Structure formats: C-alpha cells, structure tokens
C-alpha cells in the first residue's frame, strides 16, 4: 500500500503508518513555507497512491474522479472542508478525520487570551516598553485594575471538544463556567462543572463570552446586533474559533461604545486583517494569527488517529471518525 501525506506527521502514529504501507511524507508547510498543490499537480502526485493524507490541500471532485488508484483520504482536521465528501462517497472512498485533535491546544490559548484581555497584559507590556508608568490616567497600578478569575462568569458559546476542554480549565481556575449549546450532553457538562444555559442567559450574565461553535449555516453570524445588545455591559469577548460567528459591525460598535470592555481574536476572514482595519487601532483588543492549534501535540494526535482509522478500515471495521460513512459499504466490498 502506498501512502502519500501532504500533511505534517509526528509521534508514535508515524511508525504505525509506516508499518501499514510505504509512506511518502511531503507536508504542505515543510521548511516553514506554504505549498498547496493545484489539481493537475496533485493528480500527478497521486499516480499509484492508495491513501492520501491532507491538512490544507484541496481534494475536489475532479481530482477524486481521475485518481484511479486512490482508496482512502485522510483529512487531518476536524472539519474536512477541503474535501468533496459527496464525490468521495460516490467513488467509495472513505474520508477519515481527526476531530478534537487541537482541543487542548486551542483551550490553552483561550485561557491565555481570557487572562490577557481581562488583565490588560499586552497593553501593559506596551506601556513598559514605551516608558509609560505614569500617564494622565494615573500610575500603572491604577490603569490596569482588574478582577480575579474566581470572580468571573465565563460563558461558552458552543461546547464541543474545544469548549469542554476550555471550560474544564477555567472551572479549575475558579471561574463559574456556563455554556449554551443545543447539541451538548447536559450530564457530561455537569460532570465538568459547566452549567448549561440558554443563549440569552449566557449573554446577560457572562463577564467573558467565549466562542467555540463551528461555522455552519446555523451559526454563521449568530451573534448580531440584537445578541450583542444583550451582552452584559462591560463584558469581554474572546473568539478563538472562527471570526464569522460574530457579525463584525455591531461587534466593532460595541467595542467603540464600551459595551464590550475588550476582545481577543485568533482568526479573521482571509486569515489576516488589512492595515486599515479598525481592530488594529483598538488598545483593548488582542489579536493572534490563528495559532490556537499550533502545537507539536496537535500533529501527534492527528497522526495517531489517521493510523488508527486506516488500520480499522484494513481490518474491515468502521473507523472512529469517518466523514462520509456512505462510502464504507463500497470500500469494504472491494477489500
């Protein structure tokens, strides 16, 4: 079996994949550069390949239709938006996924952003570097007055793997943690000291609103002017999920007016902000460049899960995470 990985791989799962087949490892981000293959180049690389593992490369219907030897696709991410799942199902090609691979990594960044934005850490660092100890607003110890985590209620909008991992950490630090997620297991939330509430209650009572929902037709822009208007005055917004969950203009207005005391973001549409974007000039906002999942362990997790999923398929079992289960009967029949 020939396996081509355009995704980075590491850890024990790498040896497991090598024991399954002939592995060629050529990640899209090797040498800290970006190289995503256009369809013709990807097809050329797929000659004789049985298993393709990708993280960022797009595998469309055209590639799937012409890749004659391809039997399995692995998307080393939770949401395989770069794969045409229907085309893969029609071709009898299962698509393996790695949901939750970066849950702990994103949760840790979220906790860091909560602390940084509520304590003014980034702005305080700027003041030290600029020699601003005393200003017209008082000495530094007066300007950066804050509250301790144990006094804060943090509301999680969405409570999947990342939300639960975040909530568990914040509860351990003394926060009251509440969550709004119509699909969450209520009993599982209670076991993590996370209190399920409706969205209106969350917005009205949270000192920090933290976004953890996936972007779907249901959730895109779900926090608009009406919802932001219900947020507790003086609360903070932290979004280490996707920027599109919150409508931009009412959010910016809430930051300008002070209804939101501050905000932190780890993602933007198009991955970066243009130089004139209003967020760049707001001192009460922290901006990070989509680094939530950028850890060694994230890669080790998805490597292991790709190996486990592939091994399950080869043994005639249903993998733990397959995005298009309709492809399984045809795949298993062809073994």
Major pleated sheet: 7 strands, parallel
The tally of helices reads 14
Rg, nearest Å: 22 Å
Strand content: 15-25%
Helix content: 25-40%
The computed structural class is alpha/beta
Strand order of the largest sheet: 10-9-8-11-12-13-14
Low-confidence stretches: none
Give the beta-strand count: 14
Mean pLDDT: 96
> What's the helix-strand series?
EHEHEHEHEHHEEHEHEHEHEHEHEEHH
**Head-to-tail CA distance between termini:** 12 Å
Shape: elongated
What would your notes on this structure say?
The chain has helices at 12-20, 39-45, 61-66, 85-90, 103-119, 121-129, 140-143, 161-172, 186-191, 199-205, 225-229, 248-257, 296-314, 328-333, and strands at residues 2-5, 22-25, 51-54, 72-75, 95-96, 134-135, 138-139, 153-157, 176-180, 194-196, 208-211, 235-239, 260-265, 285-287. The chain is of the alpha/beta class. The strands form 3 sheets. It has a 7-stranded parallel β-sheet, with helices on both faces. Helix 1 (12-20) packs parallel to helix 13. It starts with a strand and ends with a helix. The mean pLDDT is 96.
């Amino acid at each position: 079996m020939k396996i081509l990985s355009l995704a980075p791989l590491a850890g024990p799962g790498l040896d497991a994949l090598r024991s399954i087949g002939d592995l060629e490892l050529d990640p899209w981000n090797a040498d800290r550069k970006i190289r995503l293959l256009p369809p013709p180049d990807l097809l050329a690389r797929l000659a004789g390949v049985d298993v393709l593992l990708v993280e960022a490369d797009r595998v469309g219907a055209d590639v799937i239709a012409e890749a004659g030897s391809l039997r399995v696709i692995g998307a080393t991410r939770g949401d395989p938006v770069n794969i045409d799942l229907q085309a893969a199902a029609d071709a009898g090609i299962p698509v393996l996924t790695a949901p939750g691979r970066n849950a702990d990594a994103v949760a840790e960044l979220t906790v860091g952003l909560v602390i940084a934005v509520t304590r003014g850490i980034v702005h305080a660092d700027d003041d030290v570097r600029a020699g601003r100890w005393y200003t017209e607003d008082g000495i530094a110890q007066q300007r950066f007055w804050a509250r301790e985590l144990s006094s804060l209620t943090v509301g999680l909008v969405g409570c999947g793997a990342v939300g639960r991992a975040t909530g568990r950490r914040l509860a351990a630090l003394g926060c009251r943690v509440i969550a709004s997620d119509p699909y969450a297991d209520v009993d599982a939330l209670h076991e993590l000291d996370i209190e399920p509430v409706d969205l209106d209650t969350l917005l009205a009572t949270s000192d920090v609103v933290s976004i953890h929902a996936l972007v779907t037709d249901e959730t895109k822009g779900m926090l608009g002017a009406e919802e932001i208007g219900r947020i507790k005055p003086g609360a903070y917004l932290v979004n280490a999920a996707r920027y599109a969950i919150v409508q931009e203009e009412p959010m910016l207005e809430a930051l300008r007016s002070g209804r939101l005391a501050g905000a932190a973001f780890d993602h933007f549409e198009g991955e970066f902000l243009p130089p004139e974007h209003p967020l760049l000039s707001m001192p009460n906002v922290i901006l990070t460049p989509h680094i939530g999942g950028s850890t060694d362990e994230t890669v080790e997790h998805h490597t292991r899960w790709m190996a486990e999923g592939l091994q399950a398929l080869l043994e005639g079992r249903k993998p733990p995470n397959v995005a298009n289960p309709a492809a399984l009967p045809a795949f298993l029949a062809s073994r």
